[in-house]
Amino acid sequence: MDWGTELWDQFEVLERHTQWGLDLLDRYVKFVKERTEVEQAYAKQLRSLVKKYLPKRPAKDDPESKFSQQQSFVQILQEVNDFAGQRELVAENLSVRVCLELTKYSQEMKQERKMHFQEGRRAQQQLENGFKQLENSKRKFERDCREAEKAAQTAERLDQDINATKADVEKAKQQAHLRSHMAEESKNEYAAQLQRFNRDQAHFYFSQMPQIFDKLQDMDERRATRLGAGYGLLSEAELEVVPIIAKCLEGMKVAANAVDPKNDSQVLIELHKSGFARPGDVEFEDFSQPMNRAPSDSSLGTPSEGRPELRGPGRIRTKRWPFGKKNKPRPPPLSPLGGPVPSALPNGPPSPRSGRDPLAILSEISKSVKPRLASFRSLRGSRGTVVTEDFSHLPPEQQRKRLQQQLEERSRELQKEVDQREALKKMKDVYEKTPQMGDPASLEPQIAETLSNIERLKLDVQKYEAWLAEAESRVLSNRGDSLSRHARPPDPPASAPPDSSSNSGSQDTKESSEEPPSEESQDTPIYTEFDEDFEEEPTSPIGHCVAIYHFEGSSEGTISMAEGEDLSLMEEDKGDGWTRVRRKEGGEGYVPTSYLRVTLN
Fold first, then answer.
1. How far is CA 248 from the centre of its chain?
2. Domain spanning 1-261: which CATH class is it, in words?
3. Which stretches does UniProt call biased (Basic and acidic residues) (predicted)?
């Protein structure tokens, strides 16, 4: 079945149908073009959305990036960004494979269709011209036949008219013969023209136009085939990105399953753990017992033999009495840079043997050791804290982590410099063996610079190791203090003043006022407030330590030590930068905490 046979007389129908096919092709190209614009706009909006919600700070500077929730969210954003890239790829494939190619093909089809229909119209025009010539020859033959018949009738009438002359009769017969001859020529011409037209018409309807229609049919079928392929490209462009989109969706699912609440809780602890010890209990201050001035120094000394225990049950005596014989003056506190902090009292606390009033000394010590309630505001620190090299402005735990990071960075840099030095040495050896390759002296500046960097980094490593050891010991100390306070039951409040009957007897009122209160009736004596911080000296070390640097103990209360010397730890750093140690050869004193590597028992 072809158009040339079945649709030989449907020239206009075929013209409309082929035009409709080309219009459909153009409409599909336009649709794909707009679809491409939609995909591009969609991808652009997705990328803008991802950019809007991505973290602005680098991951190494953003503490929130360590949480699995944040990491999963960033992973989802990256997958969405990849998904947007696949949408852009779809738009690009549709634009190249469909829009450009089909647009070019449509132009070719239009040119081909135009050529075929021009050929068909020329054939029609030729047939119409042949038909007009046939009609003209037919009309001429008809006219000549009528004139010949009329001339024959005129000649016959004159021949029968007796009044007509012979000349008129001969003239009429010649005219009739001429007209008859012309009619015969017109007849032959008409017959020839008719034969020619029939031949042209048969060629037009059975050969020429069917060929044109078949070409149009082939063109239209090729156009339809190409259009169907264009329909397939629309789905193929999607199918090509389906595996990658599936991976993006799978990545989102993996990111969703990667959220670990327990790990996030641990990360929060690691990020913000301060390492401070928990605040101790607030001591009870008994204002019901007035402080009586003693007549002599002996009344302010250690408790009398009749009062061996003035503290209530559960108390542990870990510190020295301020007026004991073994009490040594503590050096002034150290600044973050290692030097002593200026003090209003350059010689430290006065000796109990000075001529000052013991009650005034008691009042000063009581004020200095009065327990204070720690608050969260004091643990947070202030915004105006000066950042120091040893990170002492940070809480102990955070200081330890930052020091550990700095130590690892310095160690990596040191290893890098060592490797570079070895490489330079090898290169220098090669240059010495083969001078053609280079001058060994040209490497000396680089080797010297590398050695300088190595020395500097070694000092930095030692410095950070010392600071790290100090920070770790402080963290362990705070942790131990916190645990010990947590395990100890709270101190019972002071009991009410005793009954008059409990202390009555043969003694008078003055004697009873000078007699120390009994253990049952009074748990907090007059010097309990500062007795917490100045108790008996521990008899055994609480740890050992190693001197990292040499120290000359020139001031009062300090002791000298050599680098690498093993020492016994007698008292931890109280926050002023000094630690009390004992040498193996004998002798105790204070040394800077930052000069030690401390290990607690």
1. 17
2. mainly alpha
3. 407-432
What are the tens digits of pLDDT across the range 239-282? 999 999 999 999 999 999 999 999 999 888 888 877 777 788 88
Lookup result for tokens 């023209």: 193
Give the pair of three-digit tokens for residue 98. Answer: 């469909």
Q: Which residue ranges make up each domain of the chain?
A: 1-261, 394-476, 541-598
Superfamily grouping for domain 541-598: SH3 Domains (2.30.30.40)
Asked if 236 and 94 touch (Cβ cutoff 8 Å), the reply is no
Please name which of 50, 55, 57 lies closest in space to residue 85, comparing C-alpha atoms: 50
Three-class DSSP labels, 20-50: HHHHHHHHHHHHHHHHHHHHHHHHHHHHHHH
Provide the pLDDT for residue 155: 84
Taking alpha carbons only, the member of 83, 100, 105 closest to residue 33 is: 100
CB 7 within 8 A of CB 14: yes
Q: What is the pLDDT of residue 278?
A: 78
- To the question of pTM greater than 0.85 for the whole model, the response is no
Question: What's residue 109's pLDDT?
Answer: 92
Return the structure tokens found at 551.
């120290």
CA angle 279, 280, 282 (to 5 degrees): 115
Residues above pLDDT 70, as percent of the chain = 73
DSSP 228-297: HHHHHHHHHHHHHHHHHHHHHHHHHHHHHHT--HHHHHHHHHHHH---PPPP-PPPP---SSPPPPPSSG
| Low-confidence winner among 154-163, 181-190, 226-235 (lowest mean pLDDT) | 154-163
SS3 311: coil
Q: What is the largest CA-CA distance in the chain?
A: 212
